[in-house]
Amino acid sequence: MSPPLLSVRSVTMRFGGLTAVDAVSLDAEADQITGLIGPNGAGKTTLFAVISGFERPTSGAIHFAGRDITALRVHERANAGIARTFQIVQPFAGLSVRDNIAVGAYLRHRKRDAALAKAEAVAQAVGLAPLLDQPAGALTVAGRKRLELARALATEPKLLLLDEVLAGLNPSEIRDMLPVVQSIRAGGVTVVMIEHVMQAVMSLCDVVVVLAQGRIIASGAPAAVARDSRVIEAYLGHGASERMRAQAGEAPHA
Amino acid sequence: MKTAMTQATYWPILLVGAALALLPLVLTTNATLNFLTFAMIITLAAQGWNIIGGFGGQFSFGHAAFFGTGAYAMALLQVRFAINPWLALPLGTALGGCAGGIIGYLSFRARLRGSYFALVTLAFAEILRIVANAWGFTGAAAGVLVPLRLDPVQMQFNDRRIFYWLALLLVVIVLGASRAIMRSRFGAQLIAVRENEDAARALGVNTLVAKLSALIISAAITAAAGALYTQKFLYLDASLAYGSWISVDALLGAIIGGPGTVFGPLIGTIVLLGLGEVTKTLFAQLTGGALPGVDLVAFGVLLIICVAFAPRGVIGAVRGAVGARSATP
Asked: Hey, what's the torsion of the CAs at B162, B163, B166, B171, to 10 degrees?
């Protein structure tokens, strides 16, 4: 098996007395979708900030495509092929959708014509083509999420970090978005996604990693993780797993 | 196709340039020519401010630091080093760019943004003013006098129109350069930094390099304005070169016209200086006496109106009005 594209090696991130990420190690295999789930405050977004370079970890290292990138700055990591979206969308509100996406496209295309052509192609792929000339500030929540995705894709990344791109969308918008994420992976981009929408996690992810209170408590195939008693307890509280089994008429194993 | 697009992009600039070039053939009094020349010099300073403030969103309150550096370089290179003004102009421009590089590196490395950046630039300009006012080399409080030598070789012309055309030429060049920046990768990244710095970084923009390059270009343009100022008036002292009046005029011109637009600084400066003249004249006629600074009161009122009702300047307001009209059938 080829080495993982992204390898997080015992990363710890402390903010003063708060340990947001505690000795986390995880690998993201190339061409897979890895889901990162966990209760609120588990440290998922902080971990993304460390991977994308917005935060320097207190200790530990990040390896990407076979090299240590822990010392690289945000734009250098983007150059190396890591793109991210923001949980709280960060559009260039005063610019059109086209110009928003073009900023990402300019990373690999120095010429204006090429960058704008790339922007249009990406807009087509994520379903923003009809809105290219709209100001980004006028987009709906669903539109802004797509714009986040489009800008990140326009940088032609090897690894895409999606921070809750489905949050705030209604069920039909989520249904529309799932094939978009699938097509990104089909296009050869490795995806790591933070997601609370479990239906999406179950259908999209090849591997799921569960983070709680800064630590990884489980990882594996989505179906197996969903049955894991530690995961259920992390979400629903101590003892919840046993109560659920009791209700289901199944004896707790010793 | 490419040439057609280039024409569509740049012909308004040539058209406006040509119209302004014809003005002195109609308005021939010395007073109007002086006013027009002064307006072009201030426009150039505002165009410089617009690069970092309008496109880059980094509001400098100290562009006097660059204006004064260009102005003193122009004066001192001639007076102390006997360098020809045609050479002193590009040298002064380059020195202004260097000043921008140093001030930019110090403040952007320290991650200063918003009002902190504005205050630091203001402080740099004040330091330079105090030094220039005290140092013998810069003529201290007495200032520097460039000797009168009416000779085109000395960039001094019998015909006032020629200096106006020279200033206008630089303004038109910067109009073209601003347009080119807007349409370039650098411009897109700079505007992205203005709109959202974190998002720009995530998309691979080296924000330090973008801001620093913008400030160097910005400072060089404003320094060229300072050099022209020296050559127009042939006299300089610390409060003319490094005084806060020029910091204010440069940023007001760009903000009132429309920050981050190609024509904003030109339109804003003409509106601003025109309003200043009208106010001074009206006040003198109404009260029978001049009141120094009454034009500044008008500037203040204009700025308040602009910030409250037209945050995107004259150009933004006009575009909004045109857009609203075409939207309603």
From this structure: -130
Query: Is residue B291 assigned to a domain?
Result: no
Each residue's pLDDT tens digit, B2-21: 444 555 688 999 999 999 98
pLDDT of residue B1: 39
| CATH number of the CATH domain containing B78 | 1.10.3470
Comparing CA positions, the residue from B200, B177, B171, B183 lying closest to residue B57 is B200
Q: Which two tokens stand for residue A174?
A: 């989520």
With CA atoms as reference, the chain B residue closest to A48 would be B202
- Nearest C-alpha neighbor of B16 from the set B51, B40, B33, B45: B40
Report the distance separating Cα B136 and Cα B131, nearest Å.
Answer: 10
Chain segment A6-36, per-residue pLDDT in tens: 999 999 999 998 999 999 999 999 999 999 9
Domain holding B194, by residue range, is 2-267
A56 CB within 8 Å of a chain B CB: no
Tell me, what's the ipTM? 0.88
- On chain B, the residues whose CB falls within 8 A of the CB of A151 are 199, 203
How many angstroms separate the CA of residue A229 from the nearest CA in chain B?
A: 37
Would you say residue B293 lies in a domain?
Answer: no
State the pTM of this model: 0.89
The number of CA neighbours under 13 Å toward the Cβ of B97 is 13
Note the pLDDT tens digit of each residue in A180-233.
999 999 999 999 999 988 888 988 999 999 999 999 998 999 888 888 888 888
pLDDT (0 to 100) of residue B270:
93
Give the CATH architecture of domain A1-81+157-225.
Answer: 3-Layer(aba) Sandwich (3.40)
Q: Where in chain A is the domain with CATH 3.40.50.300?
A: 1-81+157-225
Query: Taking CB atoms and an 8 Å cutoff, what residues of chain B touch A95?
Result: 191-192, 195
Task: Report how far apart the first and last C-alpha atoms of chain B are (Å, whole number).
Answer: 33
User: Is B297 within the bounds of a domain?
Assistant: no
Is B125 inside any structural domain? yes
